Amino acid sequence: MKFLNLLRLAERQSDSFLCVGLDPDPSRFPAKYKNDASKIYDFCAAIVSATCDLAIAFKPQIAYFAAYRAEDQLEQLIAQIRRTAPSVPVILDAKRGDIGSTAELYAVEAFERYGADAVTLSPFMGQDSIEPYLKRHDKGAFLLCRTSNAGGSDLQAQRLASVAGQPMLYEYLASLAQGPWNRNGQLGLVVGATYPAEIDQVRQLAPTLPLLIPGVGAQGGDAAATIKAGWRGSIDASGLRSTSAPVIVNSSRAILYASPNDDFAAAARAEAIKTRDLLNAACRAAAAGVRD
Prior knowledge:
By secondary structure, this protein is an alpha/beta fold. It has helices at 3-14, 40-51, 62-66, 71-84, 100-113, 131-134, 153-156, 169-178, 196-205, 223-230, 253-256, 264-291, and strands at residues 18-22, 57-60, 91-96, 118-121, 140-146, 187-191, 211-213, 234-235, 241-242, 247-251.
């Protein structure tokens, strides 16, 4: 199944915009796992089992595994997601950005070694840096566009004098991803929840692309503003949503570390339900606003 179709299926089955980020930090694990990097899989697997029916996607951040020599645990975790939630896509948050044979190998790493359904990429080196990932027509790639960190403005918010209309760099990238770079319909964009006005602008420029939106939860992004800015669609009388472009709202730390105790998985589930319901309420409000 192509990534975009898998994403839409997951949204229907979970009735959710929520992506659960898997950023394991052993220093923040509950007491029975605390500071034990060999328990990364056990911790994350418990989170996955507790939230898999609530998630539109899971997003493991590769650095949190590689820093502890836990890449084998990441492989085990993605395999566990396949068993536990086969219809929930896995987005490998790797932010790779290179060309030629190096990019080819990064694509092998993401899609063959780890078996991810999609990967995050830095497009700074241009179109040929994403081509190796797009050779796999069933996979997805999310390009960093307008990120939530303060330093993102150093480059992303600079205007391009050589382009008609002098768009900001992130606006130009959104147009490329919506247009000539997206030959197989595989691309999405990463936009931070802390910049809802920019999310709205990206959505206008890229009306059919899935948006991966980190920053809700511990980073302070507003869930209602995020959905209002990024979601376009309708809700029928039965409550069924319809949209041409999925919105994937990531929350990591608020869910992972909802409790420092042995009830961490139950607490993670409660936080995921809270976030999912908040996002769904924002969606209903946005749909009502469109109808009005």
